[in-house]
Design a protein that fits this description.
Number of helices: 7
Distance between the termini: 38 Å
Helix content: 10-25%
Strand order of the largest sheet: 4-3-7-1-2-6-5
Number of strands: 21
CATH superfamily of the largest domain: Translation factors
Shape: globular
Strand content: 25-35%
Order of helices and strands: HHEEEEEEHEEHEHEEEHEEEHEEEEEE
CATH topology of the largest domain: Elongation Factor Tu (Ef-tu), domain 3
Structural class: alpha/beta
Bound molecules: FE2/S2 (inorganic) cluster
Radius of gyration: 22 Å
Length: 365
């Protein structure tokens, strides 16, 4: 329940300035101030970003679009970036990254795909309603629309469509005139999220053509069949490529188009798996702040192994995107699970979710 209407919060923003000053200098505890502010309105806080759900709309059989109005602490984000979304249930705080599709009129739009077996998406799809409030993290992500007009090929699998859709809408609206092709890979036709919207964009912008590839049903007229393969690109101009989807999809795109594309931007939303013939080795993991030492292995991510050891490191996306799991490497060397690169510089920040120990390591954890 809220004692103050949400619409008042922006006009009451000046009240927070002196409180922030006092909290910064240690005269007030931010958590105490937040407790009072959140009692007045669940979307109010000194520095944390809370957002109220303003609208929800199904855009595919398994994907829900959410329109969120953040409080005045939100500093903005760009289409194509990711934002952490936190929800609390039964005293447990759960987080997950979602792509910003649009940020306009004081609201931002994301879309949530149902993940079978997931912990966050069932809550967002089934238990989050207009008027509810949730917390947002800082936006992050580096996908950018290419600057020249030789053309853009967008390749999306499943919910990988959402960051590309944000960039696409912004680019077409800003007058991009190069040829743009979007191939969206889904299992079933009902999963073609935003299909009507994409078709409307194609009618409005003749330089844009969307196509769909279906893998678990027979393909219809004009549709492609199966998973991504190079033959799907016959007759499609390949200049700048942006691809987003699970790690396997992104790896296939990299292999097929790496040598051909003028530029390649890839983003995966599942944790990377380092394919290597290297045998699994036993290593020693030292967690300096917890003063504990554990046996580990050279293949699983440090985040996974720290959790298995009973630690609870901060994390968000678990995909190397949001930086929430960044930790200092004190000694030893780690391997980046995405690229295979080794890092062994002491005091170097590493992302636990995409780093595996290459030998014995000590972490500031
Ligand atoms: S949890 Fe997001 S980068 Fe590691």
């Amino acid at each position: 329940m809220s004692l103050l209407p949400f619409s008042w919060l922006r006009s009451l923003r000046p009240v927070l300035g002196p409180l922030r000053y006092l909290a910064r200098h240690g005269w007030l505890r931010e958590a105490d101030v937040d407790a009072v502010l959140r009692w007045l309105s669940p979307a109010w806080a000194l520095t944390r970003v809370y957002a109220r759900v303003e609208g929800r709309q199904w855009v595919a059989d398994d994907m829900l679009e959410l329109r969120l109005r953040p409080n005045a602490n939100w500093r903005g984000g760009l289409p194509g970036q990711h934002v952490q979304l936190f929800i609390e249930r039964d005293g447990v705080r759960l987080g997950r990254s979602y792509s910003l599709i649009e940020h306009a009129g004081g609201c931002l739009t994301i879309a949530v795909k149902r993940q079978p077996g997931g912990r966050v998406s069932p809550l967002l799809l089934g238990q989050l309603y207009v008027g509810d409030v949730l917390e947002l993290g800082e936006p992050a992500g580096a996908l950018r629309w290419p600057e020249d007009s030789r053309g853009v090929l967008l390749l999306a699998a499943g919910s990988g469509l959402t960051p590309l859709l944000g960039l696409l809408r912004e680019a077409l609206g800003a007058g991009y005139r190069g040829p743009v092709t979007l191939l969206h890979y889904v299992r079933e036709r009902g999963q073609r999220a935003f299909a009507e919207h994409l078709q409307a964009l194609a009618r409005q912008y003749p330089n844009f053509q969307p196509r769909w590839a279906i893998s678990a049903e027979a393909a219809g007229d004009g549709e492609l069949s199966g998973r991504f393969r190079e033959a799907h690109l016959d007759g499609v101009p390949v200049a700048h490529v942006l691809a987003c989807g699970p790690a396997g999809f992104v790896a296939r795109v990299r292999e097929a188009l790496g040598p051909r594309a003028a530029s390649l931007q890839l983003e995966s939303f599942t944790p990377p798996v380092w394919a290597s013939d290297e045998a699994r080795r036993e290593v020693r993991l030292e967690f300096a702040r917890s003063a504990s030492s554990h046996r580990g292995d050279s293949q699983r991510s440090l985040l996974e192994q720290a959790e298995a050891a009973g630690l609870r490191p901060a994390h968000g996306c678990r995909q190397g995107i949001c930086a929430s799991c960044t930790c200092t490497l004190i000694a030893g060397s780690v391997r980046d699970l995405r690229s295979g690169a080794l890092f062994s510089e002491p005091q170097q920040p590493i992302r636990l979710c995409v780093s595996a120990p290459h030998g014995d390591v000590t972490l500031d954890l």
